[in-house]
Amino acid sequence: MDSKEAIYLYKSVPTEELSKLANDITLKNYSDKIFVRGLLEFSNYCGMDCLYCGIRKSNSKAVRYRLTDEEIIETIKFGLDANIKTFVLQSGEDYNYNVKELSKLVYKIKKITGSETAITLSCGLMNKERYKELKDNGCDRYLMRFETSDENVYSYLKKGQSLKTRIQGLENLKNLGFEVGSGFMVGLPGETIETRINNALLCKELELDMIGIGPFIPHDETPLKEEDSGSLDTILRTTALLRILLPYTNIPATTATGSIDALGREKALSCGANVLMPNITPTKYKKNYLLYPGKICLEESGFECISCLSGRVESVGKKISYEKGNSLSYSIKKIREKRQ
Ligand code: 5AD
Ligand code: FES
Q: Are the C-beta atoms of residues 272 and 25 closer than 8 Å to each other?
């Protein structure tokens, strides 16, 4: 379907109908499989001061932590035992985390996990050389949301930073051969339906392999504490739009979506999402990676999350798949490149 038609539907069709359309595309391309990624929030140190974020530099109430390499490896081993084949290591934009150390860590992990697994990093914006070093050491995928396609809102939320630089970072990652993920928040102050449509079109333009979206949820220790949260209906409609525009991309049902509605993730899985990311961070640290309040799964272990998610997936008539789960869009790109 062309973009114009998709936007027309986004603007005019009831959510249920839009969801059905998106779910049909998902079933056709992924059958009933839901890929799992083990999410490890390994450090909440952050050098940034984004207005929306609970672990922003200025939040002196955030209790900072960084897992040791040993703790990280132990957690990964736990994940391997639970059959997980993709690990997402996320941190704040922590410039104290030396990229050499990070590369060494990736190398160590990859040695244990082997080529049948994928390592994804989500550690923010870096220059091309640093990304290359991470790639050379075995990092397969990189996630970095652009948050909003509105340049003015972006620079307001990120204290004068430029959206163009962020997008250049995503382009660099793509050119280095990473599977690239990005995404945005829904319901940010100043956002309109046009912003959301432009967000989705930007995802398409960037040919993303993964797209994570979630509702903005105001955190009390940030300047946006008085703002409203994004709504579930908007998340579901936008997920459906993304699936219609990008039929071969991996789209997670995110924790933030599960945090504003007890069945938020199940609903997202029924309207275009095909990935879940159980949080396998050791429980003693989980509560300190609080980007927004009301985050779910803080008391549960990674093991509990994985078994809870299988039940949730079954409730919408789908099945957890323990495959590595490359994005179809990435595989198609690779085939195209080989042919040229
Ligand atoms: N509400 C919802 N999502 C948030 N994120 C950061 N702060 C919030 C918030 N207050 C999201 C951003 C970031 C991702 C890791 O978490 O989109 O990229
Ligand atoms: Fe964590 Fe359900 S996914 S407890």
A: yes
Could you tell me the pTM of the whole model? 0.97
SS3 state at 79:
helix
Q: Please write the tens of the pLDDT for every residue from 99-111.
A: 999 999 999 999 9
Q: What is the pLDDT of residue 338?
A: 86
The CA-CA-CA angle for residues 282, 130, 104, to 5°, reads 50
Tell how strand 86-91 and strand 38-43 pair up.
parallel
As a dihedral over the C-alpha atoms of residue 291, residue 296, residue 301, residue 302, rounded to 10 degrees, the angle is -80
Please tell me the distance between residue 28's alpha carbon and the centre of ligand 1 in angstroms.
31
Report how far residue 186's alpha carbon sits from residue 213's, in angstroms, rounded to the nearest whole number: 7
What mean pLDDT do residues 52-66 have? Answer: 98
Q: State if residue 309 touches ligand 2 by the CB under 6 angstroms criterion.
A: yes
pLDDT, averaged across the chain: 96
Give the angle subtended at the CA of 197 by the CAs of 191 and 203, to the nearest 5°.
110
Q: What are 223-260's pLDDT values in tens digits? A: 999 999 999 999 999 999 999 999 999 999 999 999 99
- Ligand 2 midpoint to CA 299 (Å): 9
List, in order, residues 6 or more apart from 150 with CB less than 8 Å away. 163, 190, 191, 195, 198
Element (H or E) spanning 70, and its range?
Answer: helix 69-81
Proximal ligand: closest to the CA of 38: 2
Strand partners, 142: 121, 180
Q: Are 123 and 93 in contact (CB under 8 A)?
A: yes
Tell me which of 185, 210, 222, 231 to substitute to probe ligand 1's pocket, judged by most ligand atoms within 8 Å of the beta carbon: 185
pLDDT at 317: 97
